[in-house]
Amino acid sequence: MTSFDDSSIKVAEFLLQIKAIKLQPENPFTWASGMKSPIYCDNRKILSFPTVRTYIRHKFTECITDNFGKPDVIAGVATGAIAHGALVAQEMGLPFVYVRSEAKKHGLSNLIEGEIEKGQSVIVIEDLISTGGSSLKAVEALREKGCKIKGLIAIFSYGFEAADKAFKQSKCMYRTLTNYDTLINTAIEKQYITEKDIDSLKQWRMNPENWAAAIAK
After folding, report:
1. pLDDT band at residue 1, thresholds of 50, 70 and 90?
2. Which of 44, 65, 140, 159 has the greatest number of beta carbons closer than 10 A?
3. Model-level pTM greater than 0.90?
């Protein structure tokens, strides 16, 4: 859902520079799900680098304005997009809320933190899209409150076909500031990886669940 434009390349380059994204085809990471992966993404690191943080904030704001128009509220998805969403809301002079992964088990048992009203239009901010499951869970929580979801914007997407299908099924438009294809092209150009890594990285994106077994053969 992104293009190979200059800003997409710039975001990818920043993520590689600050090691928010690491590529290790020969020494895979283990995700929380147990799946082996040649890539690891932690966009919280952006917050520690003012130049990168500012650029990401500006690009979020531009993407919202160009693709969706100004909403009534900005909503961040917990936990990785809370800070990014708050920065965007500040930039645009808008109210901010965030959506928990599950309702609190004490107090008011809130799933959505902050003030939001039925009928308000919302842009959802996410840091990362894999299958789209957690992102769309937040979208549905807001819809259940009577909000109108204008769209969702994330910093990065792995570009899984499952995510595209899930967003289409949910009738939620989404955009990302950069994506897997742009990242890999940038990583090659900037020599973060070598040509021999490309096939392995492409194989993982096509079949992530079985990638580790395939490369072990």
Report:
1. very low
2. 159
3. yes
